[in-house]
Amino acid sequence: MPSLVRVARLPLLSVVALSAALVVASAQARQDKNQTEQAAAKQKLSNVHQEVQALGKQQAATAARRDQLNAELAKQATALAAAARALRQTDAEIATKQQQLDQLQQQRAELKQKLASQKAAIADLLRASYALGHGSDLRLLLDNEDVGRIARALVYSKYFQQDRVQKVQQLMASLAQLQTLEARITAEQQALQAQRAQREQQSRQLGKQRSAQQKLVAETDATYQDQAQRLAALKQDEQSLNSLVDKLQKQIDQALREAAAREAARQAAAKKHGGKAPPPIAVGGAGANIRGNLPWPAAGDVHRYGNGVLIRAAGGSEVRAVANGRVVYAGFLRGYGMLLILNHGNGWMSMYGNNEALLHNVGDAVTAGQAVGTAAPPTGINTGVYFELRRDGQPVDPRSWLGQRR
After folding, report:
1. pTM above the 0.85 mark?
2. Which of 149, 220, 330, 401 has the fewest CB atoms lying closer than 10 Å?
3. Sign of the C-alpha dihedral, residues 97, 103, 109, 114?
């Protein structure tokens, strides 16, 4: 019996061994599969990591290129603004020269008319002199025995001669004046011709700089791969503007505190000496209140942009101050081009961006309606004169503060 039991157990042990072998093989297969999957996942993760690194390097290179383009754009915008301002100044000088030339030519016409009258008067005198005696005062003395008549005739002759001499002298003076006028007219015409030639050269140079700037703008825009990047750039530009406004506001507040301290010291000194204080010297902003029915700074279609509006004004048209103020910033700012900021006092500021030329410098006082810049030519959808209002450093919707457009 024991031998039969051992014989019966042999197949069972084989089955168990086979099952164990299968389990081990299955576990090994699963382990190999897991290792393969882990290796694949690890490789995939490594690939993703490499892609992220490559993308990061690409974005860094793009950002560096964008910064370089913005720096070049700032230089180009400054040069373009100087050229546009010089051209505008030349136009003003040409207009003044033309006005002076017109006045000189008018004076010449009036002088020639005066000369014609003087020549006619002298001709009348010569005819009268011939008719009076066909000769001289000596014949008058020889042909008359009446002393009184002779005396009167000599007096008349004396006055007649004096009048003739005076008219001749006036005629000579008028001729000399005409000669001087002719010389001045010739000089003014030559100067006007030279300025017009200068203007043509400036205009060609301005055209080249405009093309160069538009090329830079297009190249800068091409660095933004999608709308998200553009929105991020817009936010960054807004932060730069906010930082600038905060800095300007601190300077304005400091100037106001210093002015108040000087005024208090002035009043105290006047009270101490028992005298009347002299009028204070104006320091800081213009102190105008801009609330109300304000004029629009430029003409053109309007749409909302950022914290302000874009006005699609014609290139070269004037951009005007909406209220009295003082220039606290005039220069290039990324995202806003050539920017001019006015302080109106009472916590109000107005901003005029995307100018081609700025017509005032920091510290200049301007009046409502006075031109502060000229508009850059629109080149795309989001282009035009940028206008923004701030109260106590916070943006306000300018459309609710400006008058109704007609």
Report:
1. no
2. 149
3. negative
